[in-house]
Protein backbone atom coordinates (compact mmCIF):
# COMPACT_ATOMS: atom_id res chain seq x y z
CA UNK A 1 0.00 0.00 0.00
CA UNK A 2 1.27 3.46 -0.93
CA UNK A 3 0.40 6.89 0.42
CA UNK A 4 -1.01 9.40 -2.08
CA UNK A 5 -1.68 13.09 -1.44
CA UNK A 6 -4.37 14.74 -3.57
CA UNK A 7 -3.47 18.42 -3.89
CA UNK A 8 -6.17 20.43 -5.65
CA UNK A 9 -6.21 24.11 -6.46
CA UNK A 10 -6.40 26.75 -9.14
CA UNK A 11 -2.62 26.75 -9.76
CA UNK A 12 -3.21 29.83 -11.84
CA UNK A 13 -0.23 29.90 -12.09
CA UNK A 14 1.72 27.44 -9.96
CA UNK A 15 4.38 29.12 -7.81
CA UNK A 16 7.17 28.34 -5.33
CA UNK A 17 4.70 28.10 -2.45
CA UNK A 18 2.69 25.33 -4.10
CA UNK A 19 5.74 23.20 -4.77
CA UNK A 20 7.15 23.85 -1.30
CA UNK A 21 3.88 22.71 0.29
CA UNK A 22 3.87 19.56 -1.82
CA UNK A 23 7.48 18.77 -0.91
CA UNK A 24 6.89 19.17 2.81
CA UNK A 25 3.67 17.18 2.75
CA UNK A 26 5.34 14.42 0.74
CA UNK A 27 8.18 14.14 3.23
CA UNK A 28 5.89 14.37 6.27
CA UNK A 29 3.60 11.57 5.07
CA UNK A 30 6.08 9.61 2.93
CA UNK A 31 3.64 10.03 0.06
CA UNK A 32 3.39 10.69 -3.63
CA UNK A 33 1.60 13.92 -4.61
CA UNK A 34 -0.95 14.32 -7.38
CA UNK A 35 -1.59 17.95 -8.36
CA UNK A 36 -5.18 18.46 -9.52
CA UNK A 37 -5.72 21.85 -11.19
CA UNK A 38 -9.31 23.08 -11.29
CA UNK A 39 -10.97 23.87 -14.59
CA UNK A 40 -12.73 27.08 -13.58
CA UNK A 41 -11.24 29.97 -11.65
CA UNK A 42 -13.08 32.89 -10.17
CA UNK A 43 -10.69 35.18 -12.09
CA UNK A 44 -12.19 34.24 -15.47
CA UNK A 45 -10.70 37.15 -17.38
CA UNK A 46 -7.17 36.52 -16.15
CA UNK A 47 -7.31 32.76 -15.82
CA UNK A 48 -5.30 30.42 -18.03
CA UNK A 49 -7.07 27.60 -19.85
CA UNK A 50 -6.73 24.10 -18.32
CA UNK A 51 -4.03 22.95 -20.73
CA UNK A 52 -1.81 25.89 -19.80
CA UNK A 53 -2.25 25.20 -16.09
CA UNK A 54 -1.32 21.55 -16.60
CA UNK A 55 1.69 22.44 -18.74
CA UNK A 56 2.97 24.95 -16.17
CA UNK A 57 2.55 22.44 -13.36
CA UNK A 58 4.49 19.84 -15.30
CA UNK A 59 7.29 22.35 -15.85
CA UNK A 60 7.33 23.32 -12.16
CA UNK A 61 7.49 19.80 -10.75
CA UNK A 62 10.52 19.07 -12.93
CA UNK A 63 12.37 21.66 -10.84
CA UNK A 64 11.74 19.82 -7.57
CA UNK A 65 14.17 17.31 -6.04
CA UNK A 66 11.06 15.21 -5.31
CA UNK A 67 9.88 15.26 -8.93
CA UNK A 68 9.81 11.45 -9.05
CA UNK A 69 7.02 11.55 -6.45
CA UNK A 70 4.98 14.26 -8.18
CA UNK A 71 2.47 14.02 -11.01
CA UNK A 72 -0.33 16.13 -12.52
CA UNK A 73 -3.88 14.95 -13.15
CA UNK A 74 -6.19 16.62 -15.63
CA UNK A 75 -9.25 14.93 -14.10
CA UNK A 76 -10.94 18.15 -13.00
CA UNK A 77 -9.38 20.51 -15.53
CA UNK A 78 -10.42 18.45 -18.54
CA UNK A 79 -13.91 17.39 -17.47
CA UNK A 80 -16.42 18.46 -20.10
CA UNK A 81 -19.66 17.22 -18.61
CA UNK A 82 -19.90 19.97 -15.98
CA UNK A 83 -18.41 23.35 -15.18
CA UNK A 84 -17.66 22.50 -11.57
CA UNK A 85 -16.36 19.34 -9.92
CA UNK A 86 -17.03 18.70 -6.25
CA UNK A 87 -14.15 17.41 -4.16
CA UNK A 88 -16.14 14.37 -3.11
CA UNK A 89 -16.44 13.34 -6.78
CA UNK A 90 -12.71 13.77 -7.27
CA UNK A 91 -11.99 11.61 -4.22
CA UNK A 92 -14.32 8.90 -5.53
CA UNK A 93 -12.49 8.93 -8.86
CA UNK A 94 -9.09 8.45 -7.25
CA UNK A 95 -10.39 5.92 -4.74
CA UNK A 96 -11.56 3.78 -7.64
CA UNK A 97 -8.26 4.30 -9.43
CA UNK A 98 -6.11 3.48 -6.38
CA UNK A 99 -8.30 1.15 -4.25
CA UNK A 100 -5.41 -0.33 -2.26
CA UNK A 101 -3.62 2.95 -1.47
CA UNK A 102 -4.19 5.40 1.37
CA UNK A 103 -5.45 8.76 0.13
CA UNK A 104 -4.72 12.07 1.82
CA UNK A 105 -6.49 15.29 0.88
CA UNK A 106 -4.37 18.42 1.33
CA UNK A 107 -6.49 21.50 2.01
CA UNK A 108 -5.66 25.10 2.85
CA UNK A 109 -5.79 26.25 6.45
CA UNK A 110 -8.46 28.76 5.45
CA UNK A 111 -10.74 25.82 4.57
CA UNK A 112 -10.38 23.96 7.86
CA UNK A 113 -13.23 25.76 9.61
CA UNK A 114 -15.38 25.70 6.47
CA UNK A 115 -14.97 22.03 5.74
CA UNK A 116 -18.33 21.06 7.25
CA UNK A 117 -19.97 23.24 4.55
CA UNK A 118 -18.43 21.21 1.72
CA UNK A 119 -20.55 18.75 -0.20
CA UNK A 120 -20.66 15.38 1.64
CA UNK A 121 -17.80 16.05 4.08
CA UNK A 122 -18.45 12.80 5.95
CA UNK A 123 -18.08 10.84 2.73
CA UNK A 124 -14.81 12.64 1.96
CA UNK A 125 -13.27 11.61 5.28
CA UNK A 126 -14.39 8.02 4.83
CA UNK A 127 -12.38 7.83 1.64
CA UNK A 128 -9.40 10.04 2.59
CA UNK A 129 -7.44 11.53 5.48
CA UNK A 130 -7.59 15.34 5.64
CA UNK A 131 -4.28 17.15 6.15
CA UNK A 132 -3.59 20.88 6.26
CA UNK A 133 -0.73 23.28 6.88
CA UNK A 134 -0.78 25.10 10.18
CA UNK A 135 1.10 25.56 13.42
CA UNK A 136 0.59 22.71 15.84
CA UNK A 137 -0.36 25.06 18.67
CA UNK A 138 -3.03 26.85 16.65
CA UNK A 139 -6.60 25.89 15.82
CA UNK A 140 -6.58 23.44 18.76
CA UNK A 141 -10.19 24.12 19.54
CA UNK A 142 -11.43 23.81 15.98
CA UNK A 143 -14.46 21.56 15.96
CA UNK A 144 -13.71 20.46 12.43
CA UNK A 145 -10.18 19.32 13.28
CA UNK A 146 -11.59 17.10 16.03
CA UNK A 147 -14.70 15.97 14.22
CA UNK A 148 -12.97 15.02 10.98
CA UNK A 149 -9.68 13.94 12.62
CA UNK A 150 -7.63 16.33 10.50
CA UNK A 151 -3.84 16.15 10.68
CA UNK A 152 -1.85 19.42 10.75
CA UNK A 153 1.54 19.74 9.06
CA UNK A 154 3.58 22.13 11.16
CA UNK A 155 5.70 25.06 10.05
CA UNK A 156 5.45 28.25 8.05
CA UNK A 157 4.14 28.34 4.50
CA UNK A 158 5.38 30.68 1.78
CA UNK A 159 3.27 33.81 1.54
CA UNK A 160 3.05 33.84 -2.25
CA UNK A 161 -0.05 34.70 -4.23
CA UNK A 162 -0.93 33.58 -7.74
CA UNK A 163 -3.00 36.77 -8.01
CA UNK A 164 0.13 38.86 -7.48
CA UNK A 165 1.90 36.95 -10.25
CA UNK A 166 -1.01 37.38 -12.64
CA UNK A 167 -1.00 41.12 -11.95
CA UNK A 168 2.79 41.48 -12.30
CA UNK A 169 3.37 42.48 -8.68
CA UNK A 170 5.78 39.61 -8.04
CA UNK A 171 7.13 36.78 -10.18
CA UNK A 172 7.83 34.14 -7.55
CA UNK A 173 7.77 31.07 -9.73
CA UNK A 174 10.23 29.00 -11.72
CA UNK A 175 12.06 30.31 -14.78
CA UNK A 176 10.47 27.62 -16.94
CA UNK A 177 7.02 28.78 -15.83
CA UNK A 178 7.84 32.45 -16.36
CA UNK A 179 9.12 31.68 -19.86
CA UNK A 180 5.93 29.73 -20.56
CA UNK A 181 3.78 32.67 -19.40
CA UNK A 182 5.70 35.06 -21.63
CA UNK A 183 5.78 32.78 -24.68
CA UNK A 184 2.06 31.99 -24.43
CA UNK A 185 0.81 35.53 -23.73
CA UNK A 186 -0.75 34.69 -20.37
CA UNK A 187 -1.93 36.96 -17.54
CA UNK A 188 -0.02 40.29 -17.49
CA UNK A 189 1.36 39.62 -20.96
CA UNK A 190 -2.13 40.11 -22.40
CA UNK A 191 -2.23 43.66 -21.06
CA UNK A 192 1.22 44.42 -22.43
CA UNK A 193 0.19 43.04 -25.81
CA UNK A 194 -2.90 45.25 -25.94
CA UNK A 195 -0.73 48.34 -25.60
CA UNK A 196 1.47 47.94 -28.66
CA UNK A 197 1.90 46.53 -32.14
CA UNK A 198 2.77 42.84 -32.56
CA UNK A 199 6.30 43.67 -33.70
CA UNK A 200 6.89 45.90 -30.69
CA UNK A 201 5.39 43.25 -28.41
CA UNK A 202 7.79 40.57 -29.67
CA UNK A 203 10.67 43.00 -29.16
CA UNK A 204 9.50 43.67 -25.59
CA UNK A 205 9.43 39.96 -24.82
CA UNK A 206 12.99 39.54 -26.07
CA UNK A 207 14.22 42.57 -24.15
CA UNK A 208 12.53 41.36 -20.99
CA UNK A 209 14.04 37.90 -21.12
CA UNK A 210 17.51 39.10 -22.11
CA UNK A 211 17.40 41.62 -19.24
CA UNK A 212 16.52 38.76 -16.90
CA UNK A 213 19.38 36.60 -18.18
CA UNK A 214 21.85 39.46 -17.79
CA UNK A 215 20.67 40.10 -14.22
CA UNK A 216 20.99 36.43 -13.27
CA UNK A 217 24.43 36.12 -14.90
CA UNK A 218 25.58 39.01 -12.70
CA UNK A 219 23.92 37.59 -9.56
CA UNK A 220 21.80 40.71 -9.35
CA UNK A 221 19.86 40.82 -6.08
CA UNK A 222 16.38 40.93 -7.61
CA UNK A 223 16.32 39.67 -11.20
CA UNK A 224 12.50 39.60 -11.25
CA UNK A 225 12.44 43.41 -11.00
CA UNK A 226 14.73 43.52 -14.01
CA UNK A 227 12.42 41.22 -15.95
CA UNK A 228 9.43 43.44 -15.16
CA UNK A 229 11.31 46.55 -16.29
CA UNK A 230 12.39 44.86 -19.51
CA UNK A 231 8.91 43.65 -20.36
CA UNK A 232 7.37 47.07 -19.72
CA UNK A 233 10.10 49.26 -21.22
CA UNK A 234 8.15 50.06 -24.41
CA UNK A 235 4.73 50.34 -22.81
CA UNK A 236 4.62 53.98 -23.89
CA UNK A 237 5.07 53.14 -27.59
CA UNK A 238 1.59 54.23 -28.58
CA UNK A 239 0.25 52.78 -31.83
CA UNK A 240 0.67 55.11 -34.84
CA UNK A 241 -3.05 55.81 -35.02
CA UNK A 242 -2.88 57.31 -31.54
CA UNK A 243 -0.04 59.79 -32.07
CA UNK A 244 -2.30 62.71 -31.16
CA UNK A 245 -2.84 61.06 -27.80
CA UNK A 246 0.92 60.94 -27.32
CA UNK A 247 1.24 64.68 -27.94
CA UNK A 248 -1.63 65.42 -25.57
CA UNK A 249 -0.01 63.38 -22.78
CA UNK A 250 3.31 65.16 -23.20
CA UNK A 251 1.67 68.58 -23.40
CA UNK A 252 -0.43 68.07 -20.29
CA UNK A 253 1.79 65.95 -18.07
CA UNK A 254 5.37 66.35 -19.28
CA UNK A 255 5.80 69.70 -21.03
CA UNK A 256 9.55 69.49 -20.38
CA UNK A 257 9.64 66.85 -23.13
CA UNK A 258 8.05 69.07 -25.80
CA UNK A 259 11.43 70.35 -26.99
CA UNK A 260 12.90 66.86 -27.08
CA UNK A 261 12.74 64.50 -30.11
CA UNK A 262 9.40 62.71 -30.44
CA UNK A 263 11.02 59.24 -30.61
CA UNK A 264 11.97 59.51 -26.94
CA UNK A 265 8.59 60.70 -25.67
CA UNK A 266 7.50 57.12 -25.15
CA UNK A 267 10.00 56.79 -22.29
CA UNK A 268 8.09 59.02 -19.93
CA UNK A 269 4.70 57.94 -21.29
CA UNK A 270 5.75 54.40 -20.46
CA UNK A 271 6.34 55.43 -16.87
CA UNK A 272 2.78 56.79 -16.65
CA UNK A 273 1.32 53.61 -18.14
CA UNK A 274 3.39 51.31 -15.92
CA UNK A 275 1.91 53.13 -12.94
CA UNK A 276 -1.68 53.26 -14.17
CA UNK A 277 -1.96 49.80 -15.72
CA UNK A 278 0.22 47.72 -13.40
CA UNK A 279 0.51 49.89 -10.30
CA UNK A 280 4.31 50.01 -10.59
CA UNK A 281 5.82 52.36 -8.03
CA UNK A 282 9.31 50.91 -7.73
CA UNK A 283 11.73 53.74 -8.51
CA UNK A 284 14.38 51.50 -10.08
CA UNK A 285 11.89 49.94 -12.49
CA UNK A 286 10.45 53.32 -13.42
CA UNK A 287 13.92 54.79 -13.95
CA UNK A 288 14.76 51.92 -16.30
CA UNK A 289 11.63 52.60 -18.34
CA UNK A 290 12.20 56.35 -18.44
CA UNK A 291 15.78 56.18 -19.74
CA UNK A 292 15.83 52.94 -21.75
CA UNK A 293 16.25 54.78 -25.08
CA UNK A 294 18.51 57.65 -24.10
CA UNK A 295 20.31 56.62 -20.96
CA UNK A 296 21.19 59.27 -18.40
CA UNK A 297 23.92 60.19 -15.96
CA UNK A 298 24.41 58.00 -12.89
CA UNK A 299 21.59 55.53 -13.57
CA UNK A 300 21.04 52.36 -11.58
CA UNK A 301 21.84 48.80 -12.57
CA UNK A 302 18.33 47.97 -13.76
CA UNK A 303 18.34 51.00 -16.04
CA UNK A 304 21.75 50.03 -17.41
CA UNK A 305 20.59 46.48 -18.12
CA UNK A 306 17.36 47.49 -19.85
CA UNK A 307 19.09 50.21 -21.89
CA UNK A 308 21.60 47.64 -23.14
CA UNK A 309 19.09 44.84 -23.70
CA UNK A 310 16.94 47.20 -25.78
CA UNK A 311 19.89 47.81 -28.10
CA UNK A 312 21.34 44.29 -28.33
CA UNK A 313 18.41 41.86 -28.04
CA UNK A 314 18.75 38.98 -30.54
CA UNK A 315 15.98 40.30 -32.81
CA UNK A 316 18.10 43.26 -33.89
CA UNK A 317 19.58 43.02 -37.39
CA UNK A 318 23.19 42.43 -36.34
CA UNK A 319 25.27 39.92 -34.42
CA UNK A 320 25.17 41.20 -30.85
CA UNK A 321 26.77 38.12 -29.27
CA UNK A 322 29.88 39.92 -28.02
CA UNK A 323 27.86 42.77 -26.54
CA UNK A 324 25.47 40.35 -24.83
CA UNK A 325 28.42 38.46 -23.36
CA UNK A 326 29.93 41.75 -22.16
CA UNK A 327 26.72 42.57 -20.29
CA UNK A 328 26.57 39.07 -18.78
CA UNK A 329 30.11 39.50 -17.47
CA UNK A 330 29.64 42.95 -15.92
CA UNK A 331 26.65 45.27 -15.75
CA UNK A 332 28.59 48.55 -15.64
CA UNK A 333 31.50 47.62 -17.91
CA UNK A 334 29.08 45.97 -20.34
CA UNK A 335 26.84 49.02 -20.29
CA UNK A 336 29.77 51.27 -21.16
CA UNK A 337 30.70 48.96 -24.02
CA UNK A 338 27.13 48.98 -25.37
CA UNK A 339 26.81 52.75 -24.95
CA UNK A 340 30.04 53.29 -26.86
CA UNK A 341 28.90 50.96 -29.65
CA UNK A 342 25.54 52.73 -29.83
CA UNK A 343 27.16 56.16 -30.18
CA UNK A 344 29.47 54.81 -32.90
CA UNK A 345 26.44 53.43 -34.75
CA UNK A 346 24.60 56.78 -34.61
CA UNK A 347 27.63 58.66 -35.88
CA UNK A 348 28.31 56.14 -38.64
CA UNK A 349 24.69 56.41 -39.85
CA UNK A 350 24.62 60.21 -39.34
CA UNK A 351 21.64 59.90 -36.98
CA UNK A 352 20.72 62.60 -34.50
CA UNK A 353 21.15 61.45 -30.91
CA UNK A 354 22.31 64.51 -28.96
CA UNK A 355 19.39 65.11 -26.63
CA UNK A 356 20.07 66.23 -23.08
CA UNK A 357 19.68 62.77 -21.54
CA UNK A 358 22.02 60.98 -23.94
CA UNK A 359 24.61 63.76 -23.70
CA UNK A 360 24.48 63.54 -19.92
CA UNK A 361 24.91 59.77 -20.17
CA UNK A 362 27.91 60.06 -22.50
CA UNK A 363 29.50 62.76 -20.38
CA UNK A 364 29.12 60.64 -17.24
CA UNK A 365 30.20 57.24 -18.57
CA UNK A 366 32.45 57.88 -21.57
CA UNK A 367 34.50 60.93 -20.52
Report on the structure:
Helices cover 50% and strands 8% of the residues. It is of the alpha/beta class and 367 residues long. It has two domains: 3-160, 3-Layer(aba) Sandwich (Rossmann fold), CATH 3.40.50; 195-365, Hypothetical protein af1432, CATH 1.10.3210.10. A six-stranded parallel β-sheet has the order 3-2-1-4-5-6, sandwiched between helices. Helix 2 links the parallel strand 2 and strand 3 (70-72). Helix 9 packs across helix 15 (321-329), helix 10 packs parallel to helix 13 (283-290) and helix 15 packs antiparallel against helix 16 (331-348). It is elongated and about 80 Å long.
The overall strand count is 6
Q: Mind telling me the CATH class of the largest domain?
A: Mainly Alpha
Low-confidence stretches: none
Instruction: Tell me the CATH architecture of the largest domain.
Output: Orthogonal Bundle
What would the principal axes of the Cα set say about the shape?
Answer: elongated
> Structural class, judged by helices and strands?
alpha/beta
Write down the CATH topology of the largest domain. Answer: Hypothetical protein af1432
The CATH homology group name of the largest domain = Hypothetical protein af1432
**How much helical structure, as a percent, in the residues?**
40-55%
Strand order of the largest sheet: 3-2-1-4-5-6
- Overall pLDDT: 92
Amino acid sequence: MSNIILFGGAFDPVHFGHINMAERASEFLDADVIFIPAAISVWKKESAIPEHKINMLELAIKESPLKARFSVSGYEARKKDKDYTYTVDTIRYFKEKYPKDKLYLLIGQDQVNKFHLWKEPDEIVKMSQIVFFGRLNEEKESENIKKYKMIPISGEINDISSTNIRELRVLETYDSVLKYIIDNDLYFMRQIKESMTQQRYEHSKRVGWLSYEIAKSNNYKDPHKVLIAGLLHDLGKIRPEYEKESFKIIEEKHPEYLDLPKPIWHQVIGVDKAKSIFGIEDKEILEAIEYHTTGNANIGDIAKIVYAADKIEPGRNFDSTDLINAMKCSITDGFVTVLKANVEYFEEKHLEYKNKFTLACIDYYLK
